[in-house]
Amino acid sequence: MRRVLSWVFNAPKQLHPKWLAAHPLRTKSPSFMTCTSSFQGDGVRNGTQSKKSLLSDPQLFDAQFDELLTELTDRDFQDPGLTDALSRLRQARACFDWLLHDCIIDRSSRIMVYNVPGGKRNRGLSVIGTLRELLPPAEVTQDAVQRALLVGWCIEMLQAFFLMADDIMDGSQTRRGQPCWYKKEEIGLDAINDSLLVEGSIYRILRRHCRDQPYYVHLLELFNETTFQTELGQTLDLMTAPPGQIDLSRFTMERYKTIVKYKTAFYSFYLPVASAMYMAGIKSEEEHNNAKHILLEMGEFFQIQDDYLDCYGDPAVTGKIGTDIQDNKCSWLVVKALEVMTPKQRSELEACYGRSDEASVAKVKALFNTLQMQSLYHKYEEESYQRLQKLIAAHAQNLPHSIFLNFAKKIYKRNK
Fold it and tell me: Per DSSP, what are the bridge partners of residue 175?
Protein backbone atom coordinates (compact mmCIF):
# COMPACT_ATOMS: atom_id res chain seq x y z
CA MET A 1 0.00 0.00 0.00
CA ARG A 2 1.30 3.44 -0.88
CA ARG A 3 1.96 5.84 1.95
CA VAL A 4 0.01 8.95 1.13
CA LEU A 5 0.65 11.72 3.60
CA SER A 6 -0.93 14.84 2.16
CA TRP A 7 -3.69 16.86 3.71
CA VAL A 8 -6.02 19.84 3.34
CA PHE A 9 -7.04 22.73 5.54
CA ASN A 10 -10.51 23.57 4.31
CA ALA A 11 -12.87 24.06 7.25
CA PRO A 12 -13.03 27.09 9.55
CA LYS A 13 -12.60 26.56 13.26
CA GLN A 14 -13.45 28.68 16.26
CA LEU A 15 -10.67 29.38 18.75
CA HIS A 16 -10.93 31.00 22.11
CA PRO A 17 -9.96 34.70 21.93
CA LYS A 18 -7.29 34.32 24.62
CA TRP A 19 -5.64 31.52 22.64
CA LEU A 20 -5.72 33.61 19.48
CA ALA A 21 -4.20 36.53 21.33
CA ALA A 22 -1.32 34.37 22.56
CA HIS A 23 -0.95 32.42 19.32
CA PRO A 24 -1.84 34.40 16.15
CA LEU A 25 -2.88 31.37 14.14
CA ARG A 26 -4.37 31.15 10.73
CA THR A 27 -7.88 29.79 11.09
CA LYS A 28 -8.28 27.06 8.55
CA SER A 29 -8.16 23.46 9.61
CA PRO A 30 -9.97 20.21 8.86
CA SER A 31 -12.84 19.19 11.08
CA PHE A 32 -11.73 17.47 14.26
CA MET A 33 -11.16 13.73 13.79
CA THR A 34 -13.53 13.51 10.82
CA CYS A 35 -12.05 15.81 8.20
CA THR A 36 -12.63 14.79 4.60
CA SER A 37 -11.57 16.13 1.26
CA SER A 38 -14.58 16.99 -0.84
CA PHE A 39 -12.71 18.03 -3.96
CA GLN A 40 -10.19 16.48 -6.31
CA GLY A 41 -6.86 18.03 -7.18
CA ASP A 42 -4.24 20.00 -5.37
CA GLY A 43 -3.65 20.09 -1.62
CA VAL A 44 -1.21 21.66 0.78
CA ARG A 45 2.04 19.81 1.39
CA ASN A 46 4.65 21.82 3.27
CA GLY A 47 3.46 24.92 1.45
CA THR A 48 3.49 23.27 -1.98
CA GLN A 49 0.73 21.71 -4.04
CA SER A 50 0.13 17.98 -4.38
CA LYS A 51 -1.63 16.65 -7.44
CA LYS A 52 -2.69 13.46 -5.70
CA SER A 53 -6.21 13.04 -4.44
CA LEU A 54 -6.44 13.96 -0.78
CA LEU A 55 -7.22 11.60 2.04
CA SER A 56 -9.10 12.26 5.25
CA ASP A 57 -7.34 11.87 8.58
CA PRO A 58 -9.01 8.47 9.20
CA GLN A 59 -7.76 7.28 5.79
CA LEU A 60 -4.26 8.57 6.51
CA PHE A 61 -4.42 6.88 9.89
CA ASP A 62 -5.37 3.51 8.39
CA ALA A 63 -2.68 3.79 5.72
CA GLN A 64 -0.05 4.51 8.36
CA PHE A 65 -0.76 1.21 10.13
CA ASP A 66 0.58 -0.78 7.18
CA GLU A 67 3.85 1.14 7.35
CA LEU A 68 4.00 0.67 11.12
CA LEU A 69 3.45 -3.08 10.76
CA THR A 70 6.16 -3.35 8.11
CA GLU A 71 8.56 -1.41 10.29
CA LEU A 72 8.00 -3.58 13.36
CA THR A 73 8.17 -6.91 11.58
CA ASP A 74 10.35 -6.46 8.47
CA ARG A 75 12.82 -3.64 9.18
CA ASP A 76 13.60 -4.01 12.86
CA PHE A 77 15.29 -7.19 14.05
CA GLN A 78 17.35 -8.93 11.38
CA ASP A 79 18.23 -12.06 13.38
CA PRO A 80 16.97 -15.01 11.27
CA GLY A 81 16.30 -16.90 14.48
CA LEU A 82 13.45 -14.47 15.22
CA THR A 83 11.53 -15.16 11.99
CA ASP A 84 8.80 -17.21 13.67
CA ALA A 85 8.31 -14.68 16.51
CA LEU A 86 8.05 -11.75 14.11
CA SER A 87 5.68 -13.72 11.91
CA ARG A 88 3.44 -14.16 14.94
CA LEU A 89 3.52 -10.41 15.54
CA ARG A 90 2.23 -9.68 12.05
CA GLN A 91 -0.26 -11.15 9.63
CA ALA A 92 0.11 -11.87 5.92
CA ARG A 93 0.25 -8.49 4.15
CA ALA A 94 -2.44 -9.48 1.69
CA CYS A 95 -5.04 -9.40 4.47
CA PHE A 96 -4.24 -5.81 5.44
CA ASP A 97 -6.75 -4.47 2.91
CA TRP A 98 -9.33 -5.31 5.58
CA LEU A 99 -8.44 -1.94 7.14
CA LEU A 100 -9.87 -0.07 4.17
CA HIS A 101 -12.34 -2.65 2.86
CA ASP A 102 -14.90 -4.86 4.59
CA CYS A 103 -13.09 -8.14 3.99
CA ILE A 104 -13.25 -10.92 6.57
CA ILE A 105 -9.93 -11.49 8.29
CA ASP A 106 -8.49 -14.94 7.77
CA ARG A 107 -8.25 -17.26 10.79
CA SER A 108 -4.48 -17.02 10.51
CA SER A 109 -4.60 -13.39 11.62
CA ARG A 110 -1.81 -12.58 14.04
CA ILE A 111 -1.41 -10.35 17.03
CA MET A 112 -1.20 -6.84 15.64
CA VAL A 113 -3.89 -6.94 12.97
CA TYR A 114 -6.25 -9.06 15.05
CA ASN A 115 -6.07 -6.89 18.16
CA VAL A 116 -4.98 -3.35 17.30
CA PRO A 117 -7.01 -1.78 14.45
CA GLY A 118 -10.50 -3.22 15.00
CA GLY A 119 -11.93 -0.50 17.27
CA LYS A 120 -13.43 2.92 16.62
CA ARG A 121 -9.93 4.50 16.59
CA ASN A 122 -11.18 7.58 18.46
CA ARG A 123 -8.19 7.61 20.79
CA GLY A 124 -5.62 7.39 18.03
CA LEU A 125 -7.32 9.86 15.72
CA SER A 126 -7.59 12.35 18.57
CA VAL A 127 -3.84 12.97 18.40
CA ILE A 128 -3.79 14.28 14.83
CA GLY A 129 -7.16 15.98 15.33
CA THR A 130 -5.96 17.84 18.43
CA LEU A 131 -2.63 18.74 16.83
CA ARG A 132 -4.43 20.34 13.90
CA GLU A 133 -6.42 22.45 16.36
CA LEU A 134 -3.33 23.58 18.27
CA LEU A 135 -0.94 24.48 15.44
CA PRO A 136 -1.25 26.89 12.52
CA PRO A 137 -1.46 25.04 9.19
CA ALA A 138 2.05 26.10 8.18
CA GLU A 139 3.46 24.17 11.14
CA VAL A 140 1.50 20.99 10.43
CA THR A 141 4.17 19.61 8.13
CA GLN A 142 4.21 16.19 6.50
CA ASP A 143 6.66 14.95 9.13
CA ALA A 144 4.50 16.32 11.95
CA VAL A 145 1.44 14.56 10.54
CA GLN A 146 3.28 11.25 10.20
CA ARG A 147 4.54 11.43 13.78
CA ALA A 148 1.06 12.31 15.05
CA LEU A 149 -0.41 9.33 13.19
CA LEU A 150 2.24 7.03 14.65
CA VAL A 151 1.74 8.34 18.19
CA GLY A 152 -1.98 7.77 17.64
CA TRP A 153 -1.31 4.17 16.69
CA CYS A 154 0.86 3.82 19.81
CA ILE A 155 -2.22 4.75 21.85
CA GLU A 156 -4.29 2.19 19.95
CA MET A 157 -1.59 -0.39 20.70
CA LEU A 158 -1.70 0.53 24.38
CA GLN A 159 -5.46 0.03 24.28
CA ALA A 160 -4.99 -3.38 22.66
CA PHE A 161 -2.46 -4.37 25.34
CA PHE A 162 -4.93 -3.46 28.10
CA LEU A 163 -7.87 -5.22 26.45
CA MET A 164 -5.99 -8.43 25.65
CA ALA A 165 -4.99 -8.76 29.31
CA ASP A 166 -8.35 -7.58 30.63
CA ASP A 167 -10.22 -10.19 28.59
CA ILE A 168 -8.15 -12.96 30.16
CA MET A 169 -8.70 -11.65 33.70
CA ASP A 170 -12.44 -11.21 33.12
CA GLY A 171 -12.90 -14.49 31.23
CA SER A 172 -14.55 -12.55 28.39
CA GLN A 173 -15.73 -14.37 25.29
CA THR A 174 -15.84 -11.75 22.54
CA ARG A 175 -14.20 -8.45 21.75
CA ARG A 176 -15.14 -6.17 18.86
CA GLY A 177 -17.44 -8.76 17.36
CA GLN A 178 -14.93 -11.62 17.29
CA PRO A 179 -13.55 -14.15 19.81
CA CYS A 180 -11.11 -12.67 22.30
CA TRP A 181 -7.52 -13.33 21.28
CA TYR A 182 -6.91 -15.80 24.13
CA LYS A 183 -10.08 -17.72 23.14
CA LYS A 184 -8.64 -18.63 19.77
CA GLU A 185 -7.87 -22.34 19.90
CA GLU A 186 -4.18 -22.08 19.10
CA ILE A 187 -3.54 -19.10 21.41
CA GLY A 188 -4.80 -19.68 24.97
CA LEU A 189 -2.65 -18.17 27.71
CA ASP A 190 0.11 -17.42 25.19
CA ALA A 191 -1.98 -14.25 24.81
CA ILE A 192 -0.33 -12.92 27.98
CA ASN A 193 3.05 -12.75 26.23
CA ASP A 194 1.38 -11.53 23.06
CA SER A 195 -0.04 -8.55 24.94
CA LEU A 196 3.46 -7.73 26.22
CA LEU A 197 4.79 -7.85 22.65
CA VAL A 198 2.19 -5.24 21.68
CA GLU A 199 3.13 -3.02 24.62
CA GLY A 200 6.85 -3.31 23.87
CA SER A 201 6.23 -2.31 20.26
CA ILE A 202 4.94 1.08 21.43
CA TYR A 203 8.32 2.17 22.70
CA ARG A 204 10.14 0.93 19.60
CA ILE A 205 7.93 3.15 17.45
CA LEU A 206 8.32 6.17 19.75
CA ARG A 207 12.09 5.76 19.86
CA ARG A 208 12.47 5.38 16.12
CA HIS A 209 10.30 8.34 15.16
CA CYS A 210 10.39 10.79 18.07
CA ARG A 211 13.79 10.42 19.72
CA ASP A 212 15.17 13.56 18.07
CA GLN A 213 12.10 15.64 18.98
CA PRO A 214 12.05 18.01 21.98
CA TYR A 215 8.92 16.32 23.32
CA TYR A 216 10.31 12.75 23.27
CA VAL A 217 10.96 12.49 27.01
CA HIS A 218 7.55 14.02 27.74
CA LEU A 219 5.89 11.31 25.62
CA LEU A 220 7.86 8.53 27.31
CA GLU A 221 6.93 9.80 30.76
CA LEU A 222 3.31 10.30 29.70
CA PHE A 223 2.93 6.77 28.28
CA ASN A 224 4.68 5.19 31.28
CA GLU A 225 2.64 7.16 33.81
CA THR A 226 -0.62 6.47 31.98
CA THR A 227 0.13 2.76 31.80
CA PHE A 228 0.78 2.62 35.55
CA GLN A 229 -2.35 4.63 36.32
CA THR A 230 -4.45 2.26 34.22
CA GLU A 231 -2.92 -0.77 35.92
CA LEU A 232 -3.75 0.76 39.31
CA GLY A 233 -7.34 1.15 38.17
CA GLN A 234 -7.44 -2.47 37.03
CA THR A 235 -6.02 -3.53 40.41
CA LEU A 236 -8.78 -1.67 42.24
CA ASP A 237 -11.35 -3.23 39.94
CA LEU A 238 -10.07 -6.74 40.67
CA MET A 239 -9.85 -6.09 44.42
CA THR A 240 -13.36 -4.67 44.59
CA ALA A 241 -14.92 -7.71 42.95
CA PRO A 242 -12.60 -10.72 43.42
CA PRO A 243 -13.75 -13.97 41.76
CA GLY A 244 -16.08 -16.00 43.94
CA GLN A 245 -16.41 -13.28 46.59
CA ILE A 246 -19.62 -11.32 46.33
CA ASP A 247 -19.65 -8.41 48.76
CA LEU A 248 -21.87 -5.56 47.61
CA SER A 249 -20.79 -3.40 50.54
CA ARG A 250 -17.61 -2.71 48.54
CA PHE A 251 -19.65 -1.20 45.72
CA THR A 252 -19.69 2.48 46.64
CA MET A 253 -19.88 5.42 44.27
CA GLU A 254 -16.58 6.73 45.62
CA ARG A 255 -14.80 3.45 44.84
CA TYR A 256 -16.49 3.25 41.46
CA LYS A 257 -15.36 6.73 40.41
CA THR A 258 -11.79 6.01 41.48
CA ILE A 259 -11.71 2.84 39.39
CA VAL A 260 -13.08 4.67 36.36
CA LYS A 261 -10.68 7.58 36.71
CA TYR A 262 -7.62 5.36 36.73
CA LYS A 263 -8.72 2.43 34.60
CA THR A 264 -10.36 4.37 31.76
CA ALA A 265 -10.20 8.15 31.84
CA PHE A 266 -6.44 8.73 31.86
CA TYR A 267 -5.60 6.58 28.83
CA SER A 268 -8.79 7.09 26.84
CA PHE A 269 -9.11 10.85 27.12
CA TYR A 270 -6.14 12.59 28.70
CA LEU A 271 -3.38 10.61 26.94
CA PRO A 272 -4.33 11.50 23.32
CA VAL A 273 -4.84 15.19 24.03
CA ALA A 274 -1.78 15.50 26.27
CA SER A 275 0.35 13.81 23.59
CA ALA A 276 -0.76 16.35 21.00
CA MET A 277 -0.20 19.21 23.45
CA TYR A 278 3.40 18.14 24.02
CA MET A 279 3.91 17.70 20.28
CA ALA A 280 2.61 21.25 19.80
CA GLY A 281 5.10 22.56 22.35
CA ILE A 282 2.60 23.07 25.18
CA LYS A 283 4.44 21.94 28.31
CA SER A 284 2.77 24.19 30.90
CA GLU A 285 1.66 22.17 33.91
CA GLU A 286 -1.25 24.57 34.37
CA GLU A 287 -2.54 23.99 30.83
CA HIS A 288 -2.17 20.23 31.17
CA ASN A 289 -4.04 20.30 34.48
CA ASN A 290 -6.83 22.35 32.91
CA ALA A 291 -7.16 19.83 30.09
CA LYS A 292 -6.99 16.94 32.55
CA HIS A 293 -9.80 18.41 34.66
CA ILE A 294 -12.14 18.33 31.67
CA LEU A 295 -10.97 15.05 30.16
CA LEU A 296 -11.14 12.98 33.34
CA GLU A 297 -14.75 14.07 33.83
CA MET A 298 -15.39 13.07 30.24
CA GLY A 299 -13.78 9.70 30.89
CA GLU A 300 -16.15 9.06 33.79
CA PHE A 301 -19.08 9.91 31.54
CA PHE A 302 -17.74 7.52 28.90
CA GLN A 303 -17.32 4.59 31.31
CA ILE A 304 -20.81 4.99 32.75
CA GLN A 305 -22.08 4.77 29.18
CA ASP A 306 -20.05 1.58 28.74
CA ASP A 307 -21.60 0.09 31.88
CA TYR A 308 -25.06 0.94 30.64
CA LEU A 309 -24.39 -0.57 27.21
CA ASP A 310 -23.04 -3.75 28.82
CA CYS A 311 -26.53 -4.43 30.15
CA TYR A 312 -28.80 -2.64 27.68
CA GLY A 313 -26.75 -2.42 24.48
CA ASP A 314 -27.25 -4.58 21.40
CA PRO A 315 -24.31 -7.04 21.08
CA ALA A 316 -24.64 -6.82 17.30
CA VAL A 317 -23.84 -3.10 17.61
CA THR A 318 -21.47 -3.02 20.58
CA GLY A 319 -19.41 -5.98 19.33
CA LYS A 320 -19.36 -7.76 22.68
CA ILE A 321 -21.66 -9.74 24.92
CA GLY A 322 -22.16 -7.97 28.23
CA THR A 323 -21.07 -9.95 31.29
CA ASP A 324 -20.83 -7.34 34.06
CA ILE A 325 -23.63 -8.98 36.07
CA GLN A 326 -22.14 -12.47 35.80
CA ASP A 327 -18.63 -11.15 36.50
CA ASN A 328 -19.66 -9.39 39.71
CA LYS A 329 -18.48 -6.07 38.27
CA CYS A 330 -18.61 -2.83 40.21
CA SER A 331 -20.56 -1.08 37.47
CA TRP A 332 -22.51 2.17 37.60
CA LEU A 333 -25.82 0.32 37.28
CA VAL A 334 -25.35 -1.82 40.38
CA VAL A 335 -23.78 1.02 42.41
CA LYS A 336 -26.66 3.37 41.56
CA ALA A 337 -29.21 0.63 42.16
CA LEU A 338 -27.79 0.05 45.64
CA GLU A 339 -28.35 3.74 46.39
CA VAL A 340 -32.08 3.65 45.60
CA MET A 341 -33.29 0.12 46.39
CA THR A 342 -35.12 -1.16 49.45
CA PRO A 343 -33.57 -3.65 51.92
CA LYS A 344 -35.75 -6.40 50.41
CA GLN A 345 -34.54 -5.60 46.92
CA ARG A 346 -30.96 -5.56 48.18
CA SER A 347 -31.38 -9.09 49.55
CA GLU A 348 -32.69 -10.20 46.16
CA LEU A 349 -29.74 -8.57 44.43
CA GLU A 350 -27.24 -10.20 46.79
CA ALA A 351 -28.76 -13.60 46.02
CA CYS A 352 -28.37 -13.20 42.26
CA TYR A 353 -25.56 -10.78 41.44
CA GLY A 354 -22.30 -12.36 40.33
CA ARG A 355 -23.98 -15.63 39.33
CA SER A 356 -23.56 -16.90 35.80
CA ASP A 357 -26.78 -18.86 35.41
CA GLU A 358 -29.37 -17.30 33.12
CA ALA A 359 -32.08 -17.24 35.79
CA SER A 360 -29.98 -15.12 38.17
CA VAL A 361 -28.95 -12.73 35.41
CA ALA A 362 -32.58 -12.35 34.35
CA LYS A 363 -33.62 -11.55 37.93
CA VAL A 364 -30.96 -8.85 38.24
CA LYS A 365 -32.07 -7.27 34.96
CA ALA A 366 -35.70 -7.44 36.09
CA LEU A 367 -34.73 -5.69 39.31
CA PHE A 368 -32.90 -3.00 37.33
CA ASN A 369 -36.07 -2.50 35.29
CA THR A 370 -38.18 -2.22 38.43
CA LEU A 371 -35.84 0.46 39.70
CA GLN A 372 -36.11 2.26 36.33
CA MET A 373 -32.37 2.22 35.82
CA GLN A 374 -32.70 3.20 32.16
CA SER A 375 -34.49 6.41 33.11
CA LEU A 376 -31.94 7.14 35.85
CA TYR A 377 -29.14 6.64 33.34
CA HIS A 378 -30.67 8.97 30.73
CA LYS A 379 -31.15 11.61 33.42
CA TYR A 380 -27.50 11.23 34.43
CA GLU A 381 -26.37 11.38 30.80
CA GLU A 382 -28.09 14.70 30.22
CA GLU A 383 -26.84 16.21 33.49
CA SER A 384 -23.30 15.02 32.80
CA TYR A 385 -23.27 16.51 29.31
CA GLN A 386 -24.39 19.88 30.66
CA ARG A 387 -21.73 19.68 33.36
CA LEU A 388 -19.09 19.03 30.72
CA GLN A 389 -20.13 22.14 28.83
CA LYS A 390 -19.60 24.22 31.97
CA LEU A 391 -16.21 22.62 32.65
CA ILE A 392 -15.06 23.37 29.12
CA ALA A 393 -16.10 27.01 29.48
CA ALA A 394 -14.35 27.31 32.85
CA HIS A 395 -11.08 25.45 32.22
CA ALA A 396 -10.32 25.65 28.48
CA GLN A 397 -9.39 29.32 28.66
CA ASN A 398 -6.18 29.08 26.62
CA LEU A 399 -7.00 26.01 24.57
CA PRO A 400 -9.41 25.67 21.62
CA HIS A 401 -12.82 24.69 22.97
CA SER A 402 -13.34 22.59 19.85
CA ILE A 403 -10.87 19.98 21.14
CA PHE A 404 -13.19 19.14 24.00
CA LEU A 405 -16.55 19.90 22.38
CA ASN A 406 -15.90 17.49 19.54
CA PHE A 407 -14.87 14.80 22.01
CA ALA A 408 -18.14 15.34 23.89
CA LYS A 409 -20.20 15.22 20.71
CA LYS A 410 -18.66 11.89 19.70
CA ILE A 411 -19.55 10.14 22.95
CA TYR A 412 -22.89 11.77 23.81
CA LYS A 413 -25.78 9.33 23.23
CA ARG A 414 -23.48 6.76 21.61
CA ASN A 415 -24.75 3.20 21.21
CA LYS A 416 -21.46 1.31 21.03
Answer: 178
The pLDDT value given to residue 32: 32
- Structural contact between residues 115 and 105, judged by C-beta atoms closer than 8 angstroms: no
The letter for the amino acid at 26 is R
Q: Where are the alpha helices (DSSP H) in 79-141?
A: 83-89, 111-115, 122-134
Of 166, 167, 194, 324, the active-site residue reads 166
Fold match flag (1-213 vs 238-416): yes
From the candidates 132, 175, 292, 320, which is the catalytic residue? 175
For residue 174, the cross-strand partners are: 179
Model pTM score: 0.76
pLDDT given at position 80? 63
Is 84 part of the annotated catalytic residue set?
no
- Please give the CATH superfamily to which domain 238-416 belongs: Farnesyl Diphosphate Synthase (1.10.600.10)
Which is catalytic among the residues 57, 194, 307, 324? 307
HSE-up of 111 (CA within 13 Å, CB side)? 30
Q: For 108-159, what is each residue's pLDDT tens digit?
A: 238 888 888 878 888 999 999 999 999 999 999 999 999 999 999 999 999 9
CATH architecture of 1-213: Orthogonal Bundle (1.10)
Nearest to 355 by CA among 331, 315, 323, 330: 323
Q: Is 175 a catalytic residue?
A: yes
Looking at 137-215, list the stretches that DSSP marks H as alpha helix, in order from N- to C-terminal side: 142-170, 191-210
Catalytic status, residue 307: yes
Rounded CA separation 189/145 (Å): 37
